């Protein structure tokens, strides 16, 4: 029977989970009798709610695939059979069942478990993920490798209906159907976006279509009719029409998959029986399961977007503290962008907003409600988002693409080929630039300065605070050509945000603090740390604002009046803003010490943002120490030269 146990609140104490506590590996799960799986699901759901309540993090998606996770590990011989999770938000139950239950308290913390599957973390994490729509390609690669190695192992990709909107998923489906590889794609349909046809009749046909008897008859019929192509084509069309009346899988059948479903993704016995049938089948299989995001936790079922992830549940203090006057909350950089876009659209009817499925994250909800005809959520399709903007710009619109730095990487070819080459008037509002903390390297915006700086026609701006972000977004909108404004996750220093929008001089920085000997050229939101370090060092601080075009006159002036130039950015040093400065100085045959501070040539792991900045030497203390160390080496070199 379907598990209907519903939690109304997150447990405050670790729940009693005697069955779950016996599972340290899927092999132990497979030893359980099938009738105990529903109890295991209840215990796993209560443990997941409690553990995420202790740490914060993603849990809505995990609750939705909890029964599916149990069934997959129960039926397939993981890790020998390869299980690949798309995106990774849904992998918490998988982590709990694969030997990491007692480590869940460390998830997304520095030195703890990653928030996504990670190959270095567990042999059960067969493919590292973070961006969507990669699972089918990876599973196909593993299926091909198994065939080349004469292995009978299976590969299973679990992909959400949202991730199916990306072209990459369909490219992989098309290739898999062509190769006729032994693999299973499980479509987790948690928004009923493909079909609402779920119930007794649908479940019955799913059992029938996955049964060995049906598939033996199907395959034998193909052999019998092999020499009768006209009759075989008629039978195939008849089968498709019959399936089309009971299931929405015609598209997947046309791509070469055997479609099964849709079935109830929370019915454990049905899932196990269906998967056991599918495991015996040859060729590419497609199982469509319908789930409820946040299943089993009433608030998350009612608000799946709001409960996609939660913050740590803090204990209620025993006594109420004395009331204090509330401090006004500082807006996040995303809020600054969202308000600016509404203001810009109010002033100019040509302004349109585009997002690849990041409405809430990019703070576009107000814009979507106020300007619905000028708001376009293209789903998880970053390449399309960029070229859509190019098409709009060709015919007089002023498109603004709101996109995370890490996701713009997926539309890089379109940015070059469709926007920059044609010098089209598109603004890229690049959110989550720099390190992103607990989400780790898959979501970090560590490379955008480097990969944008080499593209002709691009203007690249690095605002240092909230008001600068607003004003430079406006500057990019007024610029006739492609322009990018990068800003980080979270809040800024709390600068006053001016209502008035003013175009800033293109490619011009500003001196924030006068000093001597050392000039810190800051690019972006590390300005506060730069000023703190400069106070101890007596250094000059310049807010450069523009990476491209670079304020060459200001750089030359700083080079002429200081002994050491320090460039500072929350971007990888390789090819970043500091490289732009050194390239310019070389072109002018200016020889002087330049210290480039930025992200190291490594993938920075997850942890709190301030912890990661300190590890990279990009907090005020780290900046000061690195500069002092360089100054000491320069003084030693000078003394040696004098001797």
TrEMBL record:
Domain Transketolase-like pyrimidine-binding: 331-495
Keyword field contains Cell membrane: no
Co-factor: note: Binds 1 thiamine pyrophosphate per subunit.
CDD domains: TPP_DXS, TPP_PYR_DXS_TK_like
Protein's pathway: Metabolic intermediate biosynthesis; 1-deoxy-D-xylulose 5-phosphate biosynthesis; 1-deoxy-D-xylulose 5-phosphate from D-glyceraldehyde 3-phosphate and pyruvate: step 1/1
GO MF terms held by the record: 1-deoxy-D-xylulose-5-phosphate synthase activity; magnesium ion binding; thiamine pyrophosphate binding
Top-level taxon: Bacteria
Family: Belongs to the transketolase family. DXPS subfamily.
Alphabetical list of HAMAP family matching this protein: DXP_synth
Role summary: Catalyzes the acyloin condensation reaction between C atoms 2 and 3 of pyruvate and glyceraldehyde 3-phosphate to yield 1-deoxy-D-xylulose-5-phosphate (DXP).
Protein's UniProt name: 1-deoxy-D-xylulose-5-phosphate synthase
Organism lineage string: Bacteria, Pseudomonadati, Pseudomonadota, Gammaproteobacteria, Pseudomonadales
